Amino acid sequence: MSKKFFGGARARALGLASTGLLVTGLAAAMPTAQAAEEPTGPTTYDSGRYVVLLREAPAASYAGDDSRYPATRPTEGGAFRADSRASTQYRRHLEREQDRLAREVGTEVLSSFTVASNGFVAELSADEALDLATDRRVLLVAKDVKREMDTWETPDSLGLTGRRGAWKESGNRKKAGAGTVVGILDSGYWPESPSFAGKQLTSAPQTKWDITMSGDGSTRMEKADGGVFNGACETGEGMPDPICNTKVVGARYYSEAFEEDIATTDTEKAETEFLSARDGDGHGTHTASTAAGALVRDVSVEGRDFGKLSGMAPGAALAIYKVCWEDTDPNSGGCYTSASLDAIDDAVADGVDSINYSISGATDTVVDAVEVAFEGAAEAGVFIAASAGNSGPDASTVAHNSPWLTTVASTTHVNFENTLVLGDGQKFAGASIAGTKIPRTPLVDAKDVALEGADPAEAELCAADTLDPALAEGLIVVCKRGVYARVDKSAEVARAGGVASVLVNPSENSLDADFHVIPTIHVDEVAGEAVYAYLESAGDDAAARFALGNRTDKTTPLPQVSGFSSRGPAVANESDILKPDIAAPGSSVLAAVAPPTNSDRDYDLYSGTSMAAPHIAGLAAFMQGLHPDWTPQEIQSAMMTTAKPTRDSEGAKSTDALAQGAGIVNPKKFLDPGWFISSSAREWRGFLTGQGLDTGVPALAPTELNLPSIAQGQVAGSASFTRTLQSSMKGTWNVRVDMPGFTAEAPATLVAGRVGDIEELPVTFTRTDAPLGEFAFGKIVLSGPTKLRIPVALRPVSVKAPLSAEGTGTEGSTDVTITPAQDGELEVVAKGLAKAMTLDSAVEGGQQVLSDCIEVPEGVDHARFDLDAVDDTADLDLFVYAAESCDPSTIYALAGQSATGSADERVDLTAPAPGAYYYEIDGYAAGEAGSPIEFVMDTFLVTPEGEGDLSVSPNPVLTTANEETTFEVSWTGLEAGTRYLGLLEYAGALAPTVLEVDTTE
Predict the structure, then answer these.
(1) CA 36, 37, 41, 47: dihedral to nearest 10 degrees?
(2) I want to staple 72 with a disulfide (CB 3.0 to 4.6 A). Which of 59, 966, 994, 997 is the partner?
(3) CA distance 944 to 835
(4) Which pLDDT value is given to residue 28?
(5) Neighbours of 608 (CB within 10 A)
(6) Strands lying side by side in the sheet with 334-336
(7) How much is the average pLDDT of 893-903?
(8) Across the chain, how many H-helices and E-strands are there?
(9) Contact indicator for 880, 867 with CB cutoff of 8 Å
């Protein structure tokens, strides 16, 4: 069973959708500056740093015009190979020509571009710039405009740096996290990166922590908490000798499942992959360096200077656990559950202090092997940070909903912005790293410059080899976001001769500054509508220009929750645990990468909750270095209760706890919280029992967990909670509850007479006018020697009812217990039962099967598509599509999907629109039983009238406010050997109870 991985986005059948990825932006292609200054008068030059682009074709578009060098551009249907012999020879030729031209004018090449553009960066005097600008070999000369980079770096934005920064607590930046080890479960690391520099380990102890390595690669490090890390520096492909150092003290890899897959399928190991701890993707390198990368000075990417760069805990050591792999099939590879479990075991046994897990997880349950393993790790005293997921801004998409780990949302932290100015004067700021202006240039919709015979929908997305160079050359091309990597779209525009591109969000999502091959501005869905409207009205006269910086009259607020960041309420736990827990920078984060898969860059900008989570893992190590006696849950509490609200799109403080959790982490405050609110291992085991995994501890409701947040998915009238706090200092704190739509009862003060005092904080919320069925957000504020904020999210309903109920037999009944919000009578409407339409079949591993047409008539209240793999170790995914007719070619939308790492998947559609539907089953990975993967697929269409004479007794149900009451639902005359589905609806309730009746037993 495999987890979905950040790499290899799987474009679904018919090009309709792609699975949610842990990274929303893949590694970008090589950028360049394009176009000269705007024609506002004679072009003048002064001394400075310039980008010089040459007329000779770059390798990606070179057609073989010079008889000395064969063509290097990709063949039709092929891919560009920068590492081919022809490309290598031609790129060396370009570099020689660049050096020759630079020497002719008396300068030298500082940085060279040879793949998607042919040019270089150089320091030029005014005369040198003018000489080059008038040279026929030169396409353009443009000033390399630099922005102020003092606020781009995430440590700066989080308040870690400076005289009053949090790092001063540990003496200096380099010591932050010293004596701790951060475990990274990911795709490995690139050992040559300066972010992982350190002294080579030997048997002689090094540093204050007496770090050693024996001849067999076993490592040892004494830690700040008095413990010892005992790891391993394993050898393998690309790492023939143990190369651990004082920064990276462990490097393990777990390839068994991956190797078995490639040995038993048609796939092969990707050329850039290594059967070792060496990173074949870049993702693991990025997360590791974000968490605890060493301080690196004078970082420069594609000619842009970024200054100093480090992880959150530069003084901490790293232990790498490679669990994620890439093969040649974009539909397979990934992060195997078995690998993750082995790695978690080793990490805990080795003695890591914190773990980063930027890998997806289940959204609808915590009864998951990896989640449970992390519970054991947390019990062992390991702090775990996990990414929330990249399926935002849709609700209920958050993953990793366990209380023992810290689930991290993503925020913006810097505005890499330029401005798109349309020909009619409209201005739109968008994400862009480009450093040169683009003068007024014709603007065109990508689908209007499509190659003859190309699918217009694919051309609109700027898919590879869809644009016609005869039509696109010299233009700014508008591409729609989706399906394909953002940087691949600009690369296609560049291939077709376009000078710049505009990337448009078709719906609400993040804006990401990537290193594109040509200047690109990424705009939101509002600007996108205006761009398309302008294109339609202006016709052939449509034009635009790029201005540097934000030239609109509106400043983009910081930080905001990233559009892609998955939101609550959590489906798991019936939304009774607030997830995500906290937010950290995750949009356009600069960190180390693996050069071979990142256009030969050492550092690159990535976006995703994968980038946010290691900020928290690294900050946890920073805290552990200063407070080695703090437990993981005390660290979580300190982070959450001192976090700051993010901003909404208008710049106001956000109250949306389902997006930001407690808010963005605030290192300036989390070292002295005043109080801890911590859950215990016994609570977790009781919680697991309540979730259906019997641990031997009595069941505990999610709302009874002692968490530094409060949430309840169904509040029928009122709800009471108690939080137990332990003081970290003496003092008196005033208690204030701010909960719009509710009244609240709470003590006026909390008093700690000494460090370690334990006090209870009981709070009761009673609804006044909060809208039914919608979450209300508020906070409990403790003000005294310190200020703490406990986020609250409550959803009032007329009745609290279970989401599901089960029964068996052709004739029978079951009891349903509800909690009403008021006294009186409550009518229950029973709908169904609907008999399952069952398909027993199989799918080959790595393949997909599309169903026959399913016609949904008028009046269907609920449709369920329920997929059950016979082999529970396999991994199937389920996608449901809407179509215009019972012809697969008319599929036009993704109606629902379930693509977790489990064998079984389910899609529920509430009141689906009538029409034609299809489902697709993806054999993502075979299990122990091998391929083909057998499955049972049940489809239910619930209508008001059904089978089984479904009835409720008594009906109406007599109710007393806030007291549980039970009614009976019964059925008769069902057919044996199948399954049925029905609904129990309540007026004013959040959702119905779905009744499942199984007559196969």
Answers:
(1) -100
(2) 59
(3) 13
(4) 28
(5) 31
(6) 2-3, 334-336, 324-325
(7) 77
(8) 15, 56
(9) no
DSSP secondary structure string, 15-69?
G--B---SSSSPPPPPP---S-S-SSSS----SEEEEEEESSPPGGG--S-STTS
The answer to whether 539 touches 423, Cβ cutoff 8 Å, is: no
* Spatial separation of the C-alpha atoms in residues 521 and 544, rounded to whole Å: 12
Torsion of CA 895, 896, 899, 903, to 10 degrees: -110
d(C-alpha 910, C-alpha 197), whole Å:
54
The pLDDT of residue 599 is 86
Give the pairing of strands 804-808 and 993-998.
parallel
SS3 of residue 149 by DSSP: coil
CB 152 within 8 A of CB 289: no
Q: Annotated catalytic residue: which of 391, 402, 510, 610?
A: 610
Distance of alpha carbon 440 from alpha carbon 446, whole angstroms = 18
Confidence of residue 159 (pLDDT cuts 50, 70, 90): low
Contact of 5 with 334, CB cutoff 8 Å = yes
* Residue 656 annotated as catalytic: no
Whether 27 has a pLDDT exceeding 90, the answer reads: no
DSSP state of 148: -
Which single residue is written with the structure tokens 């890591």?
A: 352
Q: Name the band, by pLDDT with cuts 50, 70 and 90, for residue 61.
A: low
Closest CA to 58 of 593, 464, 491, 451: 491
What is the distance between the alpha carbons of residues 67 and 837, in angstroms, rounded to a whole number? 65
- Model confidence at 40, pLDDT cuts 50, 70, 90, reads very low
Which of 131, 144, 156, 186 is flagged as catalytic? Answer: 186
DSSP secondary structure of 227-248: -EEEEEB--BTTB-S---BSSE
Which tens digit of pLDDT belongs to each residue from 296-346?
998 988 878 888 899 999 999 999 999 999 988 766 668 887 888 889 888
Q: Can you tell me whether residue 219 is helix, strand or coil?
A: strand
Active site residue 610: yes
- pTM here is 0.70
Q: Mention every residue, 6+ apart, whose C-beta is less than 8 A from residue 732.
A: 749, 750, 751, 752, 784
Residues in the chain: 1001
61, 283, 490, 599: the active-site residue:
283
Structure-token pair, residue 398: 């958050």
For residues 12 and 879, the answer to whether their CB atoms sit within 8 Å is yes
Specify the 3-state DSSP secondary structure of 711: strand
Tell me if residue 186 is catalytic. Answer: yes
**Which range scores top for mean pLDDT: 76-90, 155-169, 326-340, 776-790?**
776-790
* Helix residue ranges, H only, 432-524: 456-460, 469-472, 486-495
Q: How far apart are CA 161 and CA 153, in angstroms?
A: 10
pLDDT greater than 50 at residue 221: yes
pLDDT at 508 over 70: yes
For the chain, the average pLDDT equals 87
Find the Cα–Cα–Cα–Cα dihedral 704, 708, 714, 716, rounded to 10°.
Answer: 70
Rounded to 5 degrees, φ, ψ at 918 are -135, 150
The answer to whether residues 838 and 756 touch, using CB atoms and an 8 Å cutoff, is: no
Phi, psi at residue 407, to the nearest 5°? -95, 130
- Cβ contacts of 141 within 8 Å, gap of 6 or more: 36, 45, 50, 51, 52, 53, 124, 129, 132, 133
